[in-house]
Design a protein that fits this description.
The protein is α+β, with helices and mostly antiparallel strands. It is built from 40 helices and 24 strands. The protein has a 4-stranded antiparallel sheet with strand order 1-24-23-22. Strands 2-3-4-5 form a 4-stranded antiparallel sheet, covered by helices on one side. Helix 14 (526-537) crosses helix 16, helix 15 (551-557) packs across helix 16 (559-575) and helix 22 runs antiparallel to helix 23.
Length: 1064
């Protein structure tokens, strides 16, 4: 029993909460006192209003302007404006820097603008030669203050200046008549209404011509970009008001919803008559066609179709009002002489989203309301909602059926919309194409005519037009009650693709009707064959019974399947076109292909136009919706058909070249058109697909198609020549190639024209970089040109680009060299280009490092490496910082290394070891010490070891060093020389010793600039080793050996010695 009582108490509390919460919220938040400065002015005959965005309130009287914040009533400023006119139109806007800009215009058109009201010297003036009745101003993010003046005859004039928060800037006002749809303004502003809706003038005339109405007020509100609601208020001589409500679609087509006669005197017994006195009536249109009506300095009324006029309980007269399109709690702001009153609109969203959700912006600005709600619900913090459960499909279908197929004035439709609005959070499940909203979208476009009361025999085009109206109503309703916000991308995709498919099938029917009117042939056209074939293709997937329906009827009644089937049927027809009875000649085949090409192009043009309408209306770029497959109009089926058409036209052009000029020209024209369509479809496909594997395959197909068709057109242009129309065709190919980054064809065009300047411009225009501002080697035209010139071996041209490409070439060389891997030939070519490019840029240090890599890796033949080593020494010297006679140890080591490489290459040449391969040091030493090597070349061992650093490296070759001395000492018969020396003078003996190989070797090893082994192998130790190793020598012979060695060490040698090798 206790639990039952608790349950009853809980239910009562819940009911009480539902009743009290709206009242509590209204009592806590519906009034705010205006600043004292404003109340003082309001007591007089002040002009009052809100700025264009509804964020500021202002009063203007007796040349004083008071401005304050509309949301929190915080005082902003009081400014004296030197403007005494008692009757004027005034407009105010807030500056981003915290100031206020204002514009005041008398009724006779004298306009004054203050870019910053705090700067009295910044007054700007202009003249409008019409009676000004309204004004609106905004400040763009660029700090441009735009004022738009509306005149009595419905014209608009725009005045721009630079808004400044502090100092004034010299500038002049220019009054520019505005054209319709020239720019966008904040939703609900009068200016937006006047130039966003071309129907305004006709509405004014209609209101004034009906029952002698006098136009009072106009108001508009934007429904999230999908639909604009418009209210026209006029007064009649009998004291009533005529309210005309219209809904304007995203394409600006007016749809009259209702006209209402409002008897204000019956709303309240004490209400004023509409024509009493000279007071003017105003209106402010809200969401869901709710209207606030007030009499200037009089009472205010809220009007809806269900409740009629309801007078607002205000204790003061109304000065002005505006709409606050708050997505959480939409309301009006009403300005009275002492306060601002918030009047809530009827909720069309679930109540919790406006009042109970703790995280909502409105609740965060009203802590007292949050505390009261927490007290009533027994919790201190709102709990996050759980995962919503899906609504039963049949229930949603029934409500949507009523919304879509019931007239707008029907109250049942309004109730269905309200029920759907309460279901919004639950309509997101299940996700994807299985979502109930997505399923219903397909049903709307596939429904049979009899289901909405139209005869089945009605024209197909009329059926499709009806479906378009129904589906647009469906989309508009979803946007208005915020269903699209909760749907996942795949479900949204079904909605928008349904709208496009419906447009595509309608376009087919329109084109078929036009073709029937123009055609004089009795047989079926190829397009009709395609339609019947498509009907057969989609007969199986459709859900409705098809036994008694023709292929044509199936095609036009099931756009969800037939739109894509149309393109599949086009591919099928083209595949058999060559064997068709219609295509007996090339010209006939061309005509058949053109028939389909024109139909397909017409369908895609209208489909893409519809796509753009949807983007503009619902602020969503559907091509950017994340998906695993491309958008349907750029899918594989459509692209296959387009490529089949392009292939057929290409064959026709090739067959007709040199034949009938008219047919050939037509084939080229449509080949160009179809090529562009194919390439555009690929770009849309890559934009709308996010799956990595699919996207990669798409890009490869795109590149192949781009190269195939553009190169074909370019080849045809070359064959035509300048006099045969080739020049114009080249220009058209260049345009397409530039739009689709077909770098190969752009390069070919520049080659044909011999225009390097154009090539450089293209490279800069398509210079694609990564996040680090480095060249993108996959997508950039710069990288393509570099790659192509390198592949073709045009290295001189590659190194001759202007300086603006220097950094790009450096980056390209680095990346391509890193990717060369084990390909030594490619790496050598790239490294050679690198050091040449570095020398060209005078980057000597970098060039010396690159050249060192060339010599270390022995890249190229001996002549190439020898050249690199020589240039490496020079670049190192050029890169030395400071005095060249005092190089650093690093510079010395580098020079020694380069010198060793030069000596090795000279030794290799002297030994006759060939130039194809650069031999390592070990091979050269072995060759020098071979038995066939003459003593004069054995000395090369000392040259090879002379510049090795450090000393340990020289000492590592001690064995080879000693073996060389043994060979050189054994080359002379010292005993025989000793015998002959007994009969010779000292000078003659000295001459004999200087010509010995041992003396020459000692000179090369210890007295030559090209050899430095003294520290590793001191001469004293060497001669001792040589003498010790001598076998069978007497004392006189050994003495002569020592004398020959000493003469070589101390420089007493023959200067013409062949062993004196000088390095470059």
């Amino acid at each position: 029993m206790g639990s039952m009582d608790a349950m009853l108490c809980s239910n009562e509390l819940t009911s009480l909460t539902r009743l009290l919460v709206p009242c509590l919220i209204m009592s806590l938040k519906d009034t705010m006192s205006i600043p004292a400065q404003a109340r003082h002015l309001a007591a007089r005959h002040a002009i009052a209003g809100f700025d264009g965005a509804g964020s500021l309130c202002w009063l203007f009287a007796n040349a004083k302007l008071v401005v304050w914040a509309a949301e929190n009533m915080s005082f902003h400023s009081t400014t004296s404006l030197p403007y005494p006119a008692p009757h004027a139109a005034v407009s105010v806007a807030a500056l981003q820097a915290g100031g206020v800009a204002a514009a005041v215009c008398t009724l006779d058109g004298n306009l004054s603008v203050w870019p910053s009201v705090s700067t009295s010297s910044g007054l700007l003036q202009a003249r409008i030669s019409q009676e000004v009745t309204c004004m609106v101003s905004i400040i763009l993010p660029s700090q441009t203050f735009i004022t738009v003046c509306g005149t009595a005859d419905g014209r608009l004039y725009r005045v721009d200046c630079v808004a400044q928060a502090h100092a004034a800037q010299k500038q002049a006002l220019s009054v520019i008549p505005l054209q319709q749809a020239e720019m966008a303004m904040p939703p609900g502003s009068i200016a937006q209404l006047l130039w966003s809706h071309p129907v305004l003038s006709s509405i004014q005339k209609q209101a004034q011509a009906t029952a002698q109405l006098s136009l009072c007020s106009l108001s508009a509100v934007s429904m999230k970009g999908s639909r604009h609601n418009l209210a026209v208020l006029a007064s009649a001589p009998d004291g009533t008001l005529a309210l005309q409500l219209l809904s304007i679609s995203p394409t600006y087509k007016p749809e009259e919803l209702s006209t209402h006669i409002l008897d204000v005197s019956k709303a309240e017994p004490t209400a004023e008559s509409a024509t009493e006195g000279r007071a003017k009536w105003h209106c402010c249109c809200g969401q869901k066609l709710q209207v606030l009506i007030w009499r200037e300095r009089g009472s205010a009324y809220k009007w809806t179709a269900e409740t009629g006029l309801v007078r607002q309980d205000l204790d003061e007269t109304v000065l002005s009002a505006t709409v606050a399109a708050d997505p959480v709690s939409p309301h009006w702001l009403i300005l009275t002489p002492s306060k601002v009153v918030r009047v809530a609109m009827d909720q069309v969203q679930p109540a919790h989203s406006a009042a109970i959700t703790a995280q909502s912006p409105a609740a965060s600005r009203r802590p007292a309301v949050s505390q009261a709600l927490s007290h009533l619900t027994g919790s201190s913090q709102a709990k996050p909602p759980g995962t919503p459960q899906a609504v039963p499909q049949d229930e949603v279908f029934q409500l949507l059926q009523t919304v879509v197929y019931t007239p707008a004035q029907d109250l049942a439709r309004q109730r269905s919309i309200q029920q759907l609005a309460r279901m919004v959070p639950r309509l997101q499940e299940p996700p994807g194409a299985a979502n109930v909203i997505a399923i219903f979208s397909s049903r709307v476009i596939d429904v049979l005519p009899k289901q909405w009361g139209r005869a089945l025999a009605a024209d197909y085009l009329q059926q499709l037009c009806d479906k378009e109206d129904f589906h647009q109503t469906f989309l508009t309703t979803l946007e208005e009650i915020d269903v699209m916000r909760v749907l996942d991308p795949e479900a949204l995709r079904v909605l928008f693709e349904s709208a496009e498919k419906l447009e595509a099938v309608s376009a087919v029917r329109e084109y078929e009707n036009e073709q029937r009117e123009d055609s004089q042939m009795e047989r079926m056209t190829l397009l009709q064959d395609v339609i019947f074939d498509a009907g057969r293709l989609c007969a199986a997937p459709v859900s409705a019974p098809v036994e008694q329906r023709s292929e044509q009827e199936i095609f036009y009644s099931c756009p969800s399947a037939s739109a894509e089937a149309f393109f599949e049927a086009v591919s099928n027809q083209l595949a058999g076109l060559e064997t068709s009875a219609y295509a007996d000649t090339a010209s006939t085949q061309l005509e058949q292909a053109l028939e389909l090409a024109q139909a397909v192009q017409n369908v895609l043009n209208k489909t893409h136009a519809r796509h753009q309408e949807l983007i503009q209306a619902y602020q969503r770029d559907m091509f950017r919706v994340s998906a695993d497959t491309p958008w349907w109009s750029a899918g594989l089926t459509v692209r296959t058909a387009l490529q089949a058409l392009a292939d057929t036209l290409a064959r026709s052009a090739q067959l007709l070249q040199g034949g009938d000029p008219a047919h050939f020209e037509k084939s080229i024209k449509w080949l160009l058109t179809m090529t562009e369509t194919v390439l555009v479809s690929f770009t849309q496909a890559t934009d709308s697909c996010q799956a990595a594997a699919t996207l990669q395959a798409l890009k490869q197909d795109y590149e192949q198609a781009r190269h195939k068709y553009l190169q074909l057109l370019l080849d045809i242009a070359q064959s035509l020549g300048e006099n045969g129309g080739g020049t114009l065709l080249v220009q058209r190919v260049e345009e397409l190639a530039d739009a689709h980054r077909a770098y190969a064809q752009l390069f070919e065009v520049c080659q044909l024209q011999g225009d390097d300047f154009k090539l450089h411009s293209i490279m800069m225009r398509h210079r694609v970089t990564d996040s680090g501002n480095h060249l993108d080697l996959e997508q950039s035209a710069v990288a393509y040109v570099f790659d192509r010139l390198f592949t073709e071996g045009d290295h001189a041209r590659l190194l001759s680009f202007p300086d603006q490409f220097n950094q790009d070439l450096t980056h390209w060389l680095q990346k391509r060299l890193a990717a060369a891997g084990s390909d030594r030939t490619r790496a050598a070519s790239l490294r050679r280009l690198t050091w040449l490019h570095e020398l060209r840029r005078k980057e000597y240090a970098a060039a010396s490092r690159t050249l060192a890599d060339v010599t270390n890796n022995n890249e190229g033949d001996s002549a190439t490496v020898h050249q690199a080593a020589c240039i490496a020494k020079l670049t190192r010297l050029a890169a030395v910082k400071g005095p060249i006679l005092a190089p650093s140890q690093e510079d010395v080591d580098y020079t020694n290394h380069a010198h060793t490489k030069i000596i090795m290459l000279q030794v290799q040449a002297a030994l006759g070891m060939g130039s194809e391969v650069v031999h390592p040091l070990s091979h050269l030493l072995t060759a020098c010490l071979s038995d066939e090597t003459p003593p004069s070349q054995v000395c090369y061992v000392f040259l090879l070891l002379g510049h090795l650093r450090p000393i340990d490296r020289q000492q590592a070759y001690r064995k080879e060093f000693q073996e060389a001395w043994q060979k050189l000492s054994a080359a002379t018969d010292w005993n025989l020389l000793a015998q002959h020396s007994q009969q010779q003078s000292d000078d003659q003996i000295s001459t004999f010793l200087r010509h010995t190989d041992l003396c020459n070797a000692a000179q090369t090893c210890y007295h030559s600039q090209d050899c430095n082994v003294t520290n590793a192998f001191p001469p004293e130790g060497v001669i001792d080793f040589v003498v010790d190793q001598a076998v069978g020598l007497d004392a006189a012979a050994k003495q002569l050996m020592q004398g020959a060695f000493a003469r070589g060490v101390h420089g007493l040698y023959d200067m013409g010695s062949p062993t004196n090798m000088q390095a470059d």
